[in-house]
Design goal:
With 158 residues, the chain is of the alpha+beta class. 25% of the residues lie in helices and 34% in strands. It has three helices and six strands, in the order E-H-H-E-E-E-E-E-H. Strands 1, 2, 3, 4, 5 and 6 form a six-stranded antiparallel β-sheet that branches. A hairpin with a 6-residue loop joins strand 5 and strand 6 (123-124). The chain is globular and about 45 Å long.
């Protein structure tokens, strides 16, 4: 899935990420994917300076994680993030978490909303033009890859 201009976040499984089953807990996958989404924010110009000056940020509207393999304390992790789609106010991210040897451990999809907080009440707001342009370019890179099959599967027992 790797693309040269996308951020790749690297982690090691911390001891406080390990649950009572002796492997990385589901909550910790959320932490790693969320931190990787924050790295994407930085990459597209929604960094701390922007968030402070514009009084705007991203809110997560939806997040779905699929677990493929276990990982354990000390394991090296890599999360790659792609922009699957974007519109004037939202982006749809697809992320893959891999082990040091490249084995797929988990995937995540997120829908994030650009929110302005300049009036004191959070409200959906368009991305800045440079960010919208960057998102369009990143989204175009994703199209040739297509959607992984598990993203087509609904959540449920059926």
């Amino acid at each position: 899935m790797s693309a040269p201009d996308l951020p790749v976040s690297r982690f090691r499984v911390l001891s406080d990420w390990v649950d009572y089953n002796g492997h990385m807990g589901d909550f910790a996958y959320g932490i790693a994917f969320s931190r990787s989404a924050t790295a994407m924010m930085e990459d597209i110009g929604l960094d701390e300076a922007y968030r402070t000056a514009a009084r705007a940020t991203l809110y997560t509207l939806e997040m779905r994680i699929g677990y493929q393999r276990e990982c354990h304390e000390g394991d090296a992790l890599m999360v790659e993030t792609r922009v699957q789609a974007a519109d004037p106010k939202r982006m749809h991210l697809y992320q893959e978490m891999r082990s040091g040897d490249g084995t797929l451990l988990a995937w995540c999809e997120q829908v994030l909303l650009h929110v302005a907080r300049d009036t004191g009440t959070p409200r959906a707001a368009p991305f800045p033009p440079a960010t919208a342009e960057r998102l369009a370019g990143l989204s175009a890179q994703f199209r040739p890859i297509g959607r992984p099959g598990w993203l087509e599967r609904p959540t449920g027992l059926g």
